[in-house]
Amino acid sequence: MKARPNVLWLMSDQHNANCTGYRGHPNVKTPNLDRIAASGVDFTHAYANNPICAPSRTCFMTGEYMHTHRMFGNYNFAFPEAKHEHLGYVFRMHGYQTALIGKSHMVGRWDREGFEHIRYCDLIDSDRRDPMTHHYFRYLVEHGLADRYEEGTPKPGQEYTMDGSGPARLPYEHSIERFTGNESLAFLEGRDRSRPFFLQMSFQRPHAPIAPSEEHFGMYDPDEIELPDSAVDWLENEFAGKPAVLRDRLLRGSSYPLADKDPSRLKRVLASYYALITAIDS
What we know:
By secondary structure, this protein is α/β, with parallel strands linked by helices. The chain has a single domain, classed as Alkaline Phosphatase, subunit A, CATH 3.40.720. The protein has 9 helices and 4 strands, in the order βααααββααβααα.
């Protein structure tokens, strides 16, 4: 019988597809992703079913549209969990050893039921719930680094920042990127080799907080980044002729520099954003 293939699903979060070397970006360095792309297929017309995190992830994990799985927002859901199978569950039912390492953000615990091995971490959610339920935060506690938790990570009731003005307080070796990578390698090295594997390796970054490690901060010079002509006016252009309530809803409670008119600040944010992408690639 022909051997069944192993499946490694690499994910990043809020990663603009054009911010890669193989897509011809003038600044971003992604040599490892470039090698993968060179030996595979690049789907240039693939789009997410939803712009919001949890509904979008639920769409591609279940293969269902939002009106079917009923996940309408990041913290609101209205579906009977048992009726919705996802990729991890399906692979496990077909004899695969399954693992989820990194971010999931499919609201509730039902997403984890199909995975035999889990190392869950989410910078944004860790302090909003019980932080000790997150494997990455437990790792930081074990290494005496809880007080140096990622700069910009919100406490309950706070918003996170996209400022990009400084490096994270944690060194790269203890960053969430390295944790995700190291835990994935540990799973692959210790897995049951009598079965094929399905590994969902899901990086949190370059999602905010945009605070790359000291090792990557400064990798990109903001002065060398060229902004598109629409960079400082995109918000006005996007909502031109539309009700003010749409703009107000977008900006309410947000610390994003959405309407920032300072090109130097926008360049600084992009430089740190690019650094996070390279950190994932490495």
